[in-house]
Design brief:
Elements lengths: L5 H12 L7 E7 L6 H17 L8 E6 L6 H11 L3 E5 L6 H12 L5 E4 L10 H10 L4 E6 L7 H16 L8 E8 H7 L9 H8 L3 E6 L13 H15 L2 H29 L7 H33 L22
Parallel strand pairs: 1-2, 1-4, 2-3, 5-7
Antiparallel strand pairs: 4-6, 5-6
Helix pairs in contact: 10-11
Bound molecules: uridine-5'-diphosphate and magnesium ion.
Length: 343
């Protein structure tokens, strides 16, 4: 063709032949002492990923990233073996056991540069893998975060059901917004992860922090199964710790409550002082009673109020020390957002 260089022609042919780009998915799987369950579930994840690739929903370059959270058994060796046999499997290893939340974060931060979307899932087969495809569908229709929500708690004991329900209620009352019955099975786009990287806190409660980033979100419900092998690493003590961490790392409402209580007790204390004085003037008391009551009421109120005021300042320091971004811009009129897939 006259006037057209070879490069131009090559580009024309290329544009013509390139199939529609597809999002590149990394599945993030935290593993801690999971040597019994990993050989069972790794092929399941692989199969599900292959299904999504064949259906043309995600790029063929998609990967499964295992995060070994300082396991003491042969989990890391199993991961290395998987990676040797199949390039779809990748693994990173933490220097020591840091806990589930940190393991997921390590995986997400590792993945964000390489992929367009991540799905975090437990490695014990409790989360239904077939929900992944529905998560990707939701992403393709515009959501940047897709929460996996349990449709029922049939597989849980009565005790676990009651404690879990109270946990979500308490979290919401105390001002930490969490999606009901959502654990750590979710799709997060790399766009959200880029912003999330600016959340610098050390106390992690991912399920409460991701909603703070914003962007359009959706949920997908799934049936949670029994663990396929091995045993849970979340005994009651760790669950309570997670709940406590969740509340204190997301909200300063408990401090406000102490301050409020201080105010109320001070008021009651003031009334108590008045009452004690009146009783003393009427001569209806033994010597010394009124002064003791006055001191008790006065000090009780003042102390709690002071703790509340100091707490308010500590709360401010706590929020400042997180160095969270003060705003996140999702789009500009002169820079409309478009998805460019890395695959
Ligand atoms: N896990 C982890 N580090 C830990 C504890 C757990 O990476 O210190 C992983 C574990 O391998 C699993 C997921 O976190 O993939 C959820 O743990 P588990 O199944 O024991 O918790 P449960 O489902 O009973 O709440
Ligand atoms: Mg589990």
């Amino acid at each position: 063709m006259a006037g057209q260089t070879e490069k131009d022609m090559a580009e024309t042919v290329n544009t013509y032949e390139t199939p529609a780009p597809k999002p590149l998915l990394w599945i993030i799987v935290p593993c801690y002492n999971e040597q019994e369950v990993l050989p069972v579930t790794a092929p399941l994840f692989r199969e599900e990923l292959e299904k999504m690739i064949s259906a043309g929903k995600v790029s063929r370059k998609s990967r499964i990233l295992f995060v070994n959270d300082g396991s003491a058994d042969s989990t890391w060796e199993i991961i290395q073996e998987l990676a040797r046999k199949d390039e779809t499997f990748l693994g990173i290893c933490q220097s020591r056991n840091r806990g589930h939340q940190n393991a997921v974060l390590a995986g997400l931060m590792e993945a964000r540069e390489h992929c367009d979307i991540t799905i975090s899932i437990d490695c014990d087969g409790q989360d239904d893998v077939s929900a992944m495809e529905r998560m990707v569908d939701a992403y393709l229709s515009g959501a940047e975060v897709v929460y996996g929500v349990r449709s029922s708690r049939k597989s849980d004991s009565f005790f676990k059901r009651i404690t879990a329900r109270s946990f979500y209620r308490l979290m919401n009352v105390l001002g930490a917004e969490v999606v009901y019955d959502h654990a750590d099975y979710r799709l997060v786009s790399s766009r959200v992860l880029q912003e999330f990287a600016d959340f610098h806190e050390v106390n992690l409660f991912l399920r409460g922090m991701i909603p703070l980033v914003g962007f359009p979100s959706a949920s997908v419900s799934y049936e949670r199964q029994e663990r396929m092998a091995g045993s849970s690493h979340y005994p009651l003590r760790k669950m309570l710790q997670l709940a406590f961490d969740g509340i204190t790392s997301l909200s300063v409402k408990p401090i406000n409550m102490i301050a409020g209580l201080g105010g109320i007790i001070s008021l009651i204390g003031f009334l108590g002082v008045l009452w004690a004085i009146i009783q003393a003037v009427r001569g209806a008391t033994v010597a010394g009673w009124a002064s003791i009551i006055c001191i008790v009421c006065f000090l009780g109120g003042i102390q709690l109020l002071s703790i509340g005021v100091i707490g308010e300042y500590i709360g401010k320091i706590y929020l400042e020390s997180k160095h969270r971004p003060r705003y996140i811009i999702s789009e500009r009129t002169w820079e409309p957002y478009e998805r460019h897939y890395k695959g």
